[in-house]
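Sample intake sheet
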Amino acid sequence: MTKKIFSIILVLLMMMTSVMVYAEESTVVEIAVNDGNFTTLVAALQEAELVDTLSGEGPFTVFAPTDDAFADLLAQLDITASDLLNHPQLTDVLLYHVVSGKVMSTDLSEGMEAETLKGDNITVSLEGGVFINDSEVVTADIEGSNGVVHVIDEVLVPEDFVLETEPEETVVDIAVNNGSFTTLVAALQEAELVEALSGEGPFTVFAPTDDAFADLLAQLDITASDLLNHPQLTDVLLYHVVSGKVMSTDLSEGMEAPTLKGDNIMVSLEGGVFINDSEVVTADIEGSNGVIHVLDSVLVPGDFVLETEEEQEPVPLPDTGLETGTLAYSALGILGLSGMIITKKKSK
């Protein structure tokens, strides 16, 4: 029995020795690949094209987060592995886990700082275990041919890591792809403003929805085609655009902002966020060249005139020498000029 136990122990020692020798013949990357607990780390190294770098002569010290560590991070950030692998700071995150030189656990000391290949320092703590920043070393000193791997239970996240990536869509792209701004998009196309508002900017666009335009058309008793062919269409659209990127947090009560039309719009914060009489129903939709705030009604410039006058044949008037048609036409003209300038009252 004793002989049998001795034989088992001998076999186990031989297996352990074999594994250690195999590990020492492997690079730090190969250790991660062959282990099976670092699939996300390996995928990230491949995506960031760092495999060849970390397979080089080194030596390197790699603090390697497990798949469970990456799963915890993805859950905290509420993103997928694909989101992380496509993040513009992926390379920085990975290099933040690597230190130049072969640093064994016996080389670590309390409060020690080590510069990573990213350029930022990581800090060692030995209170209650071995910690790199807030991540605990769960397995230390896995030696490879070009360095050493220490397994950690959390992903090290650099301080300058930003989850939200810069948007790729312009303010026009956002309106086109949203589906709630078909009339606005058609108007921008008709006025040939698409290219201008797809430029560098930045622009702040107060964007009326299709429902907002439908309400305006009903009030004016005109069709969308009438509006799109109106000579002041460009002015109406430019009255919805301010130069610069103005976020909702930049707005204040009574604030006035010059539009690209040249007229000012006014901000009110009483009972909501209002631009003139239009309420902002969705704010701060950021694009690559500005920001969109969604409005529930169309902003109408003070000098907008609805032209609906029709030609009439003059009818002679007895005794006065005037013509009834001319008199009626003049009266209609006066009414038209006074009543067809669109004004709106705020209702709250």
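Comment: The chain has a mean pLDDT of 85. Residues 240 and 299 are 7 Å apart (CA to CA).
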